[in-house]
Design a protein that fits this description.
Helices cover about 40% and strands about 25% of the residues. By secondary structure, it is an alpha+beta fold. Strands 1-2-3-4-6-5 form a 6-stranded antiparallel beta sheet.
Length: about 120
Amino acid sequence: MTVIDDYLAATQSPQRETLEELRLIILSIVPEAEEVISYNLPAFKVGKGIVAGFAATKNGCSYYPFSGQTLATLSEEVGQYKQTKGALQFAANKALSKNLVRKLIKERLREIDERGR
């Protein structure tokens, strides 16, 4: 079991199933990602950077790009979702689309790459 397995095991339905689906989507995009806990959130680390994370909330789920810029850069793509500077909030019974998660991760990887230069 991984730390994310432990987190999901303690999460109630329907958030658990939605986050399990999101986890599979993330791992299909970045299969080399290491599953970790960062800032008390399940997260996915590629190289030296965290590229994605998620959490169950009282009324839904949240996706964390671990960047204050990613959601702003992709504002057109994420405009339909409730959000904060660092979190995208979505319904407890509906995972984000693979296409959207791919865009979020691609942008975050670009940010990490630029930071490393």
